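ugh ok fine here u go
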Amino acid sequence: MTRAQALDGARHAFDDGRFEALLAQGVAYATESQNPAQAPVLQAYLDEFLQPRLESLGFTCRRLDNPVPGGHAFMLAERREPGAAFTLLSYGHGDVVRGQAGQWRDGLDPWQLTVRGDRWYGRGTADNKGQHCINLVALEQVLAARQGRLGYDLLLLVEMGEETGSPGLREVCREHARALRADLFLASDGPRVAAERPTLFLGSRGGVNFDLRVQLRPGAYHSGNWGGLLSNPGIRLAHAIASLVDARGRITARALVPKELPANVRAALRGIEVGGGADDPEIDAGWGEPGLSPTERVIGWNSLEVLAFKTGNPDAPVNAIPGQAHANCQIRYVVGSDSDRFLEHIRAHLDAHGFSDVEVLPNGPRMEATRLDPDNAWVRLALGSIERSTGKAPALLPNLGGTLPNDIFARDLGLPTLWVPHSYPASAQHAPDEHLLGSVAREALQAMAGLFWDLGEAEARAALG
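structure:
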């Protein structure tokens, strides 16, 4: 049996409706992790939907309890082969955001797969049920073509709480580090750079959320009697923020940006364009770090955003100087940033600019930035494999602009990390009308079949060093 037969099998699994039937079955589970009442459904997705499928492919499955109170259990599926050259760890999540039933176009049911042309509607089709189902069907075709052997061991970790921040994922990976010991991480989540272009990304930007607060008085005072005499917390906070980031989005507190954009990262991003899709917003020319392309600004650099700003009562303003103001802010950052000291740097910057009255408060955990070296041998293998399967040169993103829990796999488990996404930017992920493109799914099935096949070849053993 040959590689070409594995790819043919992947195409046939799409064309004859087997993949559609599998995805329809998975979408029917209303796995809303934000809804405590759906906890039995989340467990059923693992026990009833995934486990039988995985066992038919030679995996043994076991439950890993979540040490975080209220957290959902994990599933670890293991497929071991005598004489395996190395171990591959994969990952997926079966939970979804709320279905938002009643808000979908034309009365579409979020828990029923509906195919209309190239768009396959249903909650989880893009994030993440469709993506890990593509990988499972592709794997099935490779095993059939190789007569039940891969040439490497394969582990799959599935969680049911990613949409609520992956509670317990880090703890489970640390507790079961020996069972999760591997040589390479490969998974699928997030979007391609464009629907028609296969994509490989190697990590993600990190994220730090923080609050800025100005609390001057316990209450408000009439602006006619006190205007011009009392400092206004909204004005103070606006100027404090303006000292951190200028009117064109450039971060002026330079301790909050990396020292450089590495040459191999810049080279990887050359020729990749962001935006331009039918449903994408128009990129604002001249916004962000000067001297960088739009792709470099969102993939290779840091941004500081104001997510919310409140002073007084915006819904019912009165003629009074408010006593306090509050802003929720966020830094998206890349590898090479001094993220451990971000809040310390902000504090020092505000003090130096006369804003000692502005408090700096952490807001939630920090998500770490990760980025595998684009020159890594596993990266070269994956790029070559995807191009050979699809006939297209894939886009290489050193990291996503968004944030995934990749630091757990890259740092805690010490693995080189490869992500091959099967969604696209306009998928309506997390919104009504979420959908997967059938054309992307068909191509992704072939790309993943080729990649699972090539990982069993001699080139993969050479990549081990």
